[in-house]
Write a structure and sequence with these properties.
By secondary structure, this protein is mainly β. The protein has helices spanning 26-36, 169-174, 256-259; strands spanning 41-51, 57-68, 73-82, 90-96, 102-108, 113-116, 144-154, 157-166, 179-185, 190-197, 203-216, 219-229, 234-245.
Length: 266
C-alpha cells in the first residue's frame, strides 16, 4: 500500500534494501520506505484540531480506511464523524500503481452529491484544513524525481534530506508544489518532516510526523501529524486515537456508493 502523508492521516511495495556501505539514491530511499511501511489494510480513528492564527481551535473526528485493492489499485476512504454539520462528509481516493493515475471523489451529504475532484483542483484546500486534496494522495514515485541533497539530525536522529520534484508535465500542471524537501530517518526509513515550496520556490507549508510507534516488524506509524501553512499562520494537528491493521474491509466500501454510507457501517 502506498504511503500517504496522513497518519497521518494518513500514511500509505517490493524492492531490496540498499546494500550496506553504499549511499542509496533518493529513488532507492523512497522505494524502501514504501516496502517497509506496507499494510494490507488499515482502519484508524483520528482527532483533527484546526488552529487559526489566534490559536483558537476547532475539533473534528474522522475515520480513515485503507486497503490494497485488486489490479494494483490502492484505495482510501476518509469520513468525518463529528461535528454534526459535517458528519458523513467523505473523500474516496483510488491510486493506480501501474500508471500513477489517481481519482478522488468528495461526498457532501447535504446535497446528496458525489463530486469528482479534477486534476487541477487537487491543489485546493480540503474542507477548511491546512491540507490540500493532493496531500491526501499516495506518494507517486513514477511522477516525481528524488535527489539526496544532504544529511541532518532531527531530534537526535540522523536523516537524509531529499528533494522531490514533479517529474512529468501532467504532475507539474496539477500540483501546487514545485518542490518538496523531505527528511527521512536513516534507522527506520520513515519520513518525519516535509517542507512544501510553490512553483516560485517559496516555502508555503510544513509538515511534521512524530510520536512514532513501531506497530509490527519494520512497520512504523506516526501517531501525530502537524501541517502548518506559513503565510496563513494556521495549523492542522491530527492525532491517532485508535489503529487496526490487516482488518477485513469489503471492496464495496471503496466505491461511490460506499462513500454515501454513514460512518460506522463498515
Amino acid at each position: 500500500m502506498k504511503l500517504s502523508v496522513l497518519p497521518a492521516i494518513l500514511c500509505l511495495f517490493l524492492v531490496p534494501a540498499p546494500l550496506l556501505g553504499q549511499t542509496p539514491s533518493g529513488q532507492e530511499i523512497m522505494e524502501e520506505i514504501e516496502q517497509r511501511h506496507d499494510a494490507r489494510s488499515e482502519r484508524t480513528r483520528v482527532l483533527m484540531q484546526l488552529y487559526d492564527r489566534r490559536d483558537r481551535v476547532r475539533e473534528r473526528e474522522l475515520s480513515i480506511l485503507l486497503k490494497e485493492g485488486e489490479e494494483g489499485i490502492n484505495k482510501a476512504i476518509l469520513k468525518f464523524l463529528s461535528p454534526a454539520d459535517i458528519r458523513n462528509v467523505g473523500l474516496l481516493t483510488w491510486d493506480r500503481e501501474s500508471d500513477g493515475e489517481d481519482d478522488q471523489w468528495l461526498y457532501l451529504p447535504a446535497g446528496e452529491s458525489v463530486r469528482r475532484i479534477a486534476g487541477g483542483n487537487k491543489k485546493s484546500q480540503f474542507m477548511g484544513t491546512d491540507l490540500a486534496f493532493e496531500d491526501l494522495r499516495s506518494e507517486d514515485l513514477a511522477s516525481h524525481t528524488y535527489e539526496v541533497v544532504g544529511e541532518e539530525e532531527v531530534d537526535g536522529h540522523p536523516c537524509w534530506m531529499i528533494d522531490a520534484l514533479p517529474g512529468t508535465e501532467k504532475e507539474k500542471s496539477e500540483t501546487g508544489y514545485g518542490r518538496r524537501r523531505i527528511w527521512v530517518r536513516k534507522d527506520i526509513y520513515f519520513i518525519i518532516q516535509v517542507e512544501f515550496y510553490n512553483h516560485s520556490d517559496k516555502l508555503i507549508k510544513t509538515a511534521a510526523f512524530d510520536d512514532l510507534e513501531q506497530v509490527r516488524d519494520q512497520l512504523w506509524r506516526a501517531s501525530r501529524s502537524t501541517f502548518v501553512r506559513v503565510l496563513a499562520g494556521t495549523r492542522t494537528v491530527m492525532t491517532t486515537q485508535s489503529r487496526e491493521l490487516d482488518v477485513d474491509l469489503p471492496d464495496s466500501l471503496f466505491t461511490q456508493q460506499g462513500l454515501r454510507r454513514p460512518p460506522g457501517r463498515e
